[in-house]
Amino acid sequence: MTDEHGRPEPPLEGGEAATLRGFLTYQRATLEWKCRGLDDEQLRVTLPPTTMTLGGMLKHLAYVEDYWFTEVIGGEPEPEPWASGRPETDPDWDWNSAAEDYGDELRALWAERVNRSDAIVAAQLGQAGAAALSKPHWAWGGQGRVCLRWVLAHMIEEYARHNGHADLIRESIDGQTGE
């Protein structure tokens, strides 16, 4: 079932993995809705005093998807454009460089990374079932370990926080509001 904005509702009854994935999918769909229909310039609008933009949010969340799912859970090397694009002198490169990108490119990058993340999670769950939620994975350059359950919960929090920002920015652009 989807709501009036096209967001799939999380399951009301289901296992832990389905519930976590359902809430993450809902939060991702909320970001997509907040960015839907905006042109390149609108995706670059800031709401002072912050320098955040919806385009920057798309690129940042594409990076976060890649870090947590591709690198940490999937165990794969850092993919492009992060591997060679991010200068060490700009720790906010994912946010800042989005001003130079086209909206369609940002949306495609984000959607591609979400799809890759979903495939990695499905593969992990397909191999080990619910036990995959507890399997430890190295994170933070080998400085600590997290499990898939933690990553899914963290990503729900990450999207929910940024969706609050997205709601305010979108309202400043065209007055559109909603949860």
Task: Characterise this structure.
The protein is mainly alpha-helical and 179 residues long. It has one domain (16-174): Four Helix Bundle (Hemerythrin (Met), subunit A). Helices cover 56% and strands 4% of the residues. It has 6 helices and 2 strands, in the order αααααββα. It has helices spanning 16-35, 54-73, 82-85, 93-96, 103-128, 148-174; strands spanning 136-139, 144-147. The chain has a two-stranded antiparallel sheet. Helix 2 (54-73) packs parallel to helix 5 (103-128) and helix 2 runs antiparallel to helix 6. The chain is globular, with a radius of gyration of 16 Å.
Descriptive terms for the model:
single chain, about 180 residues, mainly alpha, Four Helix Bundle (Hemerythrin (Met), subunit A), globular
Write the layout of secondary structure elements.
Layout: H1 16-35, H2 54-73, H3 82-85, H4 93-96, H5 103-128, E1 136-139, E2 144-147, H6 148-174
Antiparallel strand pairs: 1-2
Helix pairs in contact: 1-6, 2-5, 2-6
The radius of gyration is 16 Å
- Topology, number of strands: 2
- Helix content range: 55-70%
Q: Decide which structural class fits the backbone.
A: mainly alpha
Whole-number tally of structural domains: 1
Distance between the termini: 17 Å
How do the helices and strands follow one another from N- to C-terminus? HHHHHEEH
The coarse overall form would be globular
Give the helix tally: 6
What is the third-level CATH name, the topology?
Four Helix Bundle (Hemerythrin (Met), subunit A)
CATH fourth-tier homologous superfamily? dinb family like domain
Strand portion:
under 5%
For the biggest β-sheet, the strand order reads 1-2
Largest sheet, in brief, is: 2 strands, antiparallel
Uncertain stretches of 5 or more adjacent residues: none
The CATH architecture name reads Up-down Bundle
Q: Mean of residue pLDDT?
A: 96
CATH C-level: Mainly Alpha
